[in-house]
Amino acid sequence: MAVATNLPLSGSGIGWRPELSASIACLPSLSFIEIIAESFWHCQQLPDPFKCLLNRGIEIVPHGISLGLAGADYPDRDHLKRLASLAQLLDAPCVSEHVAFVRANGIESGHLLPVPRNKETLAVLIENTKMAMDILQRPLALENIASRVEPPGSIMPEWDFLHELVDRTGCWLLLDLENLHARARSHHFNPIEQLASFPLHRVAYLHLAGGIEHDGEYHDTHDQPVGDDTLASLKALQAKNPALAFCLERDGNWPRLRELSAEMDRLRPYVMVDRM
Amino acid sequence: MTDSLRNRLAHEQHALLKALFAEGACPPGYDPHAVALTRQSLISKRLREVGIAWPIFDRILAPDWRHNFRSFAQTYPPAQGGPIQDGYCFLAYGNHGSFTPIAQKAMVYHELSRSCKRWAVVFRLIPKFWRLVIGLAFHKRVIIVCSLPW
User: Fold this and answer.
1) A201 touching chain B per CB within 8 A
2) CATH for A12-265 (3.30.470.20, 3.30.230.70, 3.20.20.220, 3.20.20.150)
């Protein structure tokens, strides 16, 4: 497997949330944070917590959640310009979004939804991604989503679909191992066996999170410590490419600093290139 | 070049959204069980996000507001503008399109929590419904000065 030499990120990162701000400010050995881009649309200047983090040499990645690049519409140019302005304000090493649709014919989903993986959808997604990259003018990483529903007409495996996407656009992949695990549970495949099929040479960084099992169904709630299965995928991946950066995501059940720090320490040995 | 593909994709995506958010039928080819599970988990996610964006709901709405929100979310898709706008729509839904006095207080408290002033003007476009609400805060109590359809 070819290993990328110009990765936009290295080391360990964490998804910044207001509830975690105080803890994140105290976390040692952090290389980057990821912020929800739409929450900072209207910032004319950097919020103080971000200034402090940038002064410590910690990079900030804007992570979009509502662009809907796999939607039927052309991407909203104003939305992209706002994302580009934010990335410029932060001097971000890259911008990330999702391979998903979020709206159609006036209905907003408020959530990331899957598209059929076939040549037709790919053509639309590639056109939209190229438009986005033209406006953003910095590396764009697109994330695999978790979904229970499998749209009819999906004839390509996810890894082949993403391979074609990155090869034909030059975008990066944000590989979410928790989403991969959740999808594997719903669609009955072994994520570790399939890891090598993903375009690992274009992985910008990884997402790690934890979910819960309820009534025999797995829910990727992102509010638990990283589970053993996702950790096993990380371990398998580390054997293939030890330079990959990771970003821990936590969207609820907010941990205290000690717990958060222990979680980062548990994951950090899997990343060999770290900025201390 | 992709316009015809886009039209077809829009039709398919719209059908899935109607099934997930507007009590539409499960589109052909989808697993109905997976669609039903997704529908419930999306409603739970909306409820969680509105609870975070509107902490005042727990303080001043009836204790069963979460149950009522689930009923609302069964038929109303998420509002454009995220959980804050979703909260406004929920408040309007609770009284068939107008705002009860409690809902008006929730709105003004919410606006006050976002500013450092002791007064707040709420002017929101809820689908098919404009409303202007002006409230004042004194010693942590809110008095609604004016509430008008617009």
Assistant:
1) no
2) 3.20.20.150
- Give B36-66 pLDDT, tens digit per residue: 999 998 999 899 889 988 988 998 888 889 9
The backbone region for A253, taken as left when phi is positive above 0, alpha when psi lies in -120 to 50, beta otherwise, is left
Say yes or no: A213 contacts chain B, CB-CB below 8 A. Answer: no
Enumerate the H helices of chain A as residue ranges: 21-26, 48-55, 77-90, 119-136, 158-169, 177-187, 191-195, 228-240, 257-267
Cross-chain residue pair B7–A72, CB shorter than 8 Å: yes
Summarised one tens digit per residue, pLDDT across range B84-104 is 888 888 887 766 656 777 887
Three-state DSSP state, A162: helix
Rounded distance between C-alpha atoms, residue B20 and residue B32, angstroms: 11
What is the number of structural domains in chain B? 1
Name the residue facing A104 among B14, B28, B34 (closest C-beta): B14
pLDDT at A255 over 80: yes
The model carries a pTM of 0.89
Would you say residue B5 lies in a domain? no
Q: Among partner residues A38, A105, A152, which is closest to B28 by beta-carbon distance? A: A152
Domain assignment of residue B93, yes or no: yes
Cβ–Cβ of A219/B82 closer than 8 Å? Answer: no
